[in-house]
Amino acid sequence: MTREPYPTARRDDVVDILHETPVPDPYRWLEDPDSPETKGWLLGQADLFAKERGPQRFKSRVAELLRSGSVGVPVWRGGRHFFSRRTPDQEHAVYYVAEPDGAERALVDPMAIDPSGLTTLDAVQPDKEGRLLAYQISVGGDEESVLYVIDVTTGARVEGPIDRCRYSPIAWLPGGAAFYYVRRLPSTEVPENETQFHRRVYLHRVGTSTEDDVMIFGQGLKMTNYYGVSVSRDGRWLQVSAHEGTAPRNDLWVADLTESPIDRPELRVVQEGVDAQTGLVFGRDGRLYVHTDRDASRGRVCVSDPAAPEFGNWRDLIPEDPEAVLSDFAILDDLERPVMLVGWTRHAISEISVHDLATGERLGEVPTPGLGTIGGISERPEGGHEAWFGYTDNTTPPTIQRYDAGTGETTLWAASPGAVEVPDVRTEQVVYRSKDGTDVRMLVISPTGAAEGPRPTILYGYGGFGLSMSPGYSASILAWVEAGGVYAIANLRGGGEEGEEWHRAGMLANKQNVFDDFHAAAEHLIATGVTTPEQLGISGGSNGGLLVGAALTQRPELYAAVVCSAPLLDMIRYEKFGLGATWNVEYGSAEDPEQFGWLWGYSPYHHVRESVAYPATLFTVFQSDTRVHPLHAWKTCAALQHASTSDRPVLLRNETEVGHGARSVSRSVDLSADTLTFLARHTGL
């Protein structure tokens, strides 16, 4: 077929010399989104995409499957509980409170705040008594959260707006008169290119000016630090943690607020300069529970005395499991024999075990609805015999399950509110061997009862930051499989499916392992007759966009089509844009000679070669993305359009007023329909 001509993109002779290596960057001019030339090029790409787009084949079915809605795990405060729910016709989930008599009230409705659908609810935190609610919202995808506090009974605003609160935890003190939170320094106090960084922990007293907030932590520490902060239910113990960017390790301090003022807490070190992640839970029984991967890559729970929280005083309660990763736990103590529920993921599949709280002895398991994903075990802060947890799998929209430790039974507590007819699909977990002999797992979702034989297939992966790819309800996956395709999700190194060692086997100098795992997944699907190179599409976003960018530049012959969403692709300059400076702990820094070598070895933008027949490629990017700048996709799109000898198109879908994260349902449907239509066209579905 005859391909539409590409918009003109000049190639400049821009070459940086880094560590004695020439690094060409012919499309650096595309880094300026405000230049007339960039704007003209983007308009040309928009026109080209509109011509090539064609009918959105999957749109109505994806929209129908999303009418399932959703429901969130409840948070209990006294007799009240708080939860989110999205009904079939809603663009965004609404946050509710339910009174002891069951009466519900909407507290935060993004569409009521902004009927355009551009406002998203980023975070919520009720106070310890359930009388006040702190919530954070942002607009147009920028994720620059603004904080408000409302009275739960009346809905009246009592605080806010407080800006610069992106990714801020809220740690209420008892009584709701004050909270600790995290806020960036004002832009006037930091260099222009560092305004996204420089966080500090503050104490805020409700009803007072933020000008009077007291900085309690963070001064003089690294600009890329993220901080966690929490206060125990009784208000006695303050916990502050610090992560350098997204590093898989943290420093940790505690303060006894009965022995020092809340605005000048005397923080003592629990863990500092240690290559491990640790978090604390101050139990109602007076014990300190320590969740850590220190000396335990898959995680363990230890106990200690809150007054002696240092490592030397930790004692194993739930030791590391050789196969399962310990994700979270909850304590149920209104029983003759108090228990701890422990959440695990075993090769990406969730389970919950029951243990004696005093000894850690395993007593049994919590019944779960199937082989899926469990999210957030919730208990009543004052104690009890019940727990709630979210559950989903490939064909089950989110549900909330209730476990009663008295009877040992699990029952459905709340289902997603929309009734949808879900297609019948078959999910299989397979094991394949990567290039270096490592066994890797992959979920393969296919039509039930269909004839054997190779099919158009989408291979999806992520492989980074310790994030696990676990089963979950997806309208896009179901629509694709229902139409006759196969959808495969590879549990690559770099993720968290097998614990922290699995993560580290795919980060920094080991990043090529992730790409090798992905190529091996494709080769396995081909070798076992699931698909062929002519029928295989790949898809990934963010770090997964880097993954498919590396895949298409390293093995272009292996893939027929690529969807590369919000990707990192220029790995030499990524630190200079968005939140890139917080990710050098995952990828490395081009400023360091050795780490430059790692990045230069795979940076997709720099590995586009001329006169190669590249797969059909669709870049989807979001103009308001403040995490990953769209320039990565823009520059690589221009490079591929220049270099590829294939008649398969290289296209750019550039969307405005959305960002890297949450978006309205209708925007999600459009994006999904465009990507599935593109993949179907170029894999023969």
Automatic annotation (TrEMBL):
It catalyses: Hydrolysis of Pro-|-Xaa >> Ala-|-Xaa in oligopeptides. PROSITE patterns: PRO_ENDOPEP_SER. It holds the Pfam family Peptidase_S9. It is an enzyme of class 3 (hydrolase). Its EC number is 3.4.21.26. Keywords: Hydrolase, Protease, Serine protease. Residues 476-684 form the Peptidase S9 prolyl oligopeptidase catalytic domain. Residues 7-414 form the Peptidase S9A N-terminal domain. InterPro entries: AB_hydrolase_fold (IPR029058), Pept_S9_AS (IPR002471), Pept_S9A_N (IPR023302), Peptidase_S9_cat (IPR001375), Peptidase_S9A (IPR002470), Prolyl_oligopep/macrocyclase (IPR051167). The keyword Ribonucleoprotein does not apply. Belongs to the peptidase S9A family. This is prolyl oligopeptidase.
